[in-house]
Automatic annotation (TrEMBL), chains A, B, C, D:
Top EC class for this record: oxidoreductase
Pathway annotation from the record: Purine metabolism; urate degradation; (S)-allantoin from urate: step 1/3
MF GO annotations: urate oxidase activity
EC number(s) recorded for this UniProt protein: 1.7.3.3
InterPro entries associated with the record: Uricase (IPR002042)
Protein function: Catalyzes the oxidation of uric acid to 5-hydroxyisourate, which is further processed to form (S)-allantoin.
Keywords, comma-separated and alphabetical: Oxidoreductase, Purine metabolism
Protein name, entry field: Uricase
């Protein structure tokens, strides 16, 4: 009989909005929470017995109840609370992984005294993943959808040329990418104090941005390494950074047929194909644990 | 033989990025341009003769060449230039409609003196549509993807109840929507000076936001009207506003089964179905011209 | 005070799946229904009075209740029933427009006698729009997401060349498009028998496909006209066809740098920009009523 | 200095359409190819030296040249050819991973003798991933976007109930999912003959479908295991199957407020949240190698 291998189940994409009313001043947290649970689940796969199965509907209810009971101080803190609950309250569940997307809102400034109006800040999404096996924690935070572009200070030349190479070398090009970053905190033990998740996120994001802007780039790989290294060097609580950076090609348009010269002014922003550069940057001695796939 | 009715053709979604270098300080315009042309096109439909057809590839080339030759002062100004070109340079073309999406970028602030690094501002897209028939202009500007939310000051009650009505009345609810706005400028004649398109857009957007935030809402229709009326009242250059506002329902989660009270704190953000409220608000005496469909 | 112009409201994207059990043989209808209502709605916009407003939640409930009470013989028939209900049962509502997307499922063939298993047929979506003002009906059916491609029998040459034209003429190219078609039935009067909507859709779709495949094309406009004309000529119940056809460019890859000849064998399927060809084809004497925008 | 961890680079999403002309009968392969290369890449990350970097543009060119030179017998065979080329022709490259999506087309049947017209078959995508390190092959094939639904023969009861459980047990429910399947072939050695990739895919797909349809389901986990086990039992060339199955909830609509009984006839198809069931099924003795994350 075929063997059951790695497996998990849970409720994905529970959308919870939590309002806190501080008098007339309101605050908002907007999360998308996905719960994945693993443990003694052979019976349900092999025989259809649900005796060990807490329904995914219950995972959804728990998200809402915890938002009320405990509030949402940060995505990471909320994920830790949920993971601990499932692993410690359900004997057959040995491991929980909570994934959270957080959508940012900013206040709409108005002439009046109203403090309950918000606008979504953009396409960037903050991410947090919390894994717990009853003993150790692993917290991987990150972001997606942060699109950045340098109009200069990027070159690409000196590369390998084979039979199929036609690319011209570039001494001044646009470098643009859509940053997908994940960083793993060293914290894993309840006995140690947890990092300041809100500050950690803001700081890591800031270092990624400034390293992107400040690096004179000879390749997107070099820029990637500088971005990851900047975070490792400045944030002692972070041991590992993984970056996935599509090279969003901006091709210089050939204007010569129209009697015009293109002095790096007019570009075609291409969709596909795109280069894809992915790498992990580690604190010296740390093991890579963020999945590469 | 079946008759040929209304028709148009052109190149859609030409992606052009225009860089302006003011010494070390760079500026950026990022547009998605769609050209639609109409005129004496019976032959190509009925007989496959392309004698009147300027290729759509040429429309694409023209976008790039004009970005170099004339720069991009604003989406509207660029659209006017393109529309005028096609209608006046090609005898068989009697009408041009240029649609532009503009993506906003903001500078990445860095410690260094570099001024060539940018981050995409978000999911909001500025839109402009320019139509020209050789005599009159019609400019409709707008925006999509502006998501806004009030955590209070919204009610919904006193509505019709029929056999199929089960909705409970609400005295305090979240009101959230994703604003799709279009506004038509009164300007139509080359002999009159054109409005300041950049300022017009910023002002209209600001009025939409503040009207949304400042309206105590008894229905999304009321909020919609206030938003449109605010623009009409404050911007004399704008004659018509059309708003399409999905009611992005945030349902109060029932926490009673868990022994908890939900004091308007925990909401489920639903995807579908959603209410959809659409209306045009007009300057007194103006005709509605923005399509309703 | 700014004037209220054209407006509508309703519930969009109510997802209803209706199962019919004929013993062990089950049947399935899978619809996405959007209701838009108009009428005496000045008060709700101007003063926030909901006295004339049937909640959008009730529109959703009505969709589900009607699916049970009346079944879903076809999207069009279901839309007619809903539109009639809202206009005739609510005095302030003068006009209803029902838009429906229908997703097709096909049976999974199995060795057993089970007849309750289905697989989604694909990305193609059947559409229906029913409008009713209490006297006249307008039914526009259609489809989206039907992607078709001819590997030959397509040329493009003899076009206008201006200063910005660089395109090479083509005597053999791939012609590919993603068909978005809408067709308007002549039926408008309850006193006359309605067409067979299921058969009408299948026949119109078949004619679009065969006209696309059988036309030797000198331009996508010519192919478009042939597709529309074929439907008008073969289906007397249809008075108007509107087609929106993106020209999904497949560019011949230049293999000469690699010492290879590309005999119309290897193509790059481009995303953007794309040509966009749109036209209406009419029965002689019919008015174009399908919106062009 | 921070350490460089796992990394790769390459060109993603090269869209290639390959036509084969057998007289008037044409054949079509439509692929989306992503190349990822790894090896001696420390210099480019740490110092910006591209001396070991074959440009991603060259990877794109190679895809097109190989499509001409060797044709595309199957996605897997094409991926093997590409992976072997990069690893054996570039000394610094030690590992290649080729990911391919294949889009299916079916012939448009026409009255004429034309055999060059095609329609996209649907949203289902065939996938293939080939990894090569110079010695061993790993081929993981699969599919995404296969949406299936049983209208009956599904129950869910006997599960754990905690403080947050409110779900009612179900003795007859709709079971619907969007199958994402990957299966790993045992073949890894050039010295052994490779499997028939086309037949392998068709057979695996057929077994997944029939197991879904024929399983009387007490939980989606049980159905998942049956689907994977069916493939392992029937296809000796496949050692591992991983399935990711969202539980696309179809909720029975409560029609009682309208005086109607819902005898499992009318359902609301929900978007989010959804259950997510994931598991690997293995041939006895095989190691799980398909990533779980």
């Amino acid at each position: 009989m075929p063997t059951l291998g790695p497996n998990s189940y849970g409720k994905a994409e529970t959308r919870v909005v939590r309002v806190v009313r501080d008098g007339a001043v309101h605050h908002l947290k907007d999360l998308n929470v996905s719960v994945a649970l693993s443990g003694e689940m052979a019976d349900v796969h092999l025989r259809g017995s649900n005796a060990n199965v807490l329904p995914t509907d219950t995972a959804k209810n728990t998200v809402y109840a915890f938002a009320k009971e405990h509030g949402i101080a940060s995505a990471e803190e909320f994920g830790i609370r949920l993971a601990r609950h499932f692993v410690t309250s359900q004997q057959p569940i040995h491991r929980a992984r909570i994934r959270i997307e957080e959508y940012a809102w900013e206040r709409i400034e108005t002439a009046g005294r109203a403090k309950h109006s918000f606008a979504r800040r953009g396409q960037e999404v903050r991410t947090a993943q919390v894994s717990y096996d009853g003993r150790c924690w692993e917290v991987v935070s990150g972001l997606t959808g942060l699109t950045v572009l340098n109009t200069t200070d990027s070159e690409f030349w000196g590369y390998v040329k084979d039979r199929y190479t036609t690319l011209q070398e570039a001494r001044d090009r646009i470098l643009a990418t859509d940053v997908h970053a994940r960083w793993r905190y060293g914290w894993s033990d309840d006995a140690r104090p947890a990092p300041d998740w809100e500050r950690g996120h803001a700081e890591a994001r800031g270092h990624l941005l400034s390293a992107f802007a400040e690096t004179y780039s000879l390749s997107l790989q070099q820029t990637l390494y500088q971005m990851g290294a900047r975070v490792i060097e400045r944030r002692p609580e972070i041991d590992e950074v993984r970056l996935s950076l599509p090279n969003q090609h901006h091709f210089l348009v050939d204007l010569e047929p129209f009697g015009l010269t293109n002095d790096n002014e007019v570009y075609f922003a291409a969709d596909r194909p795109y280069g894809l550069i992915e790498a992990t940057v580690l604190r010296d001695g740390a093991e890579p644990r963020i999945p590469t796939d």
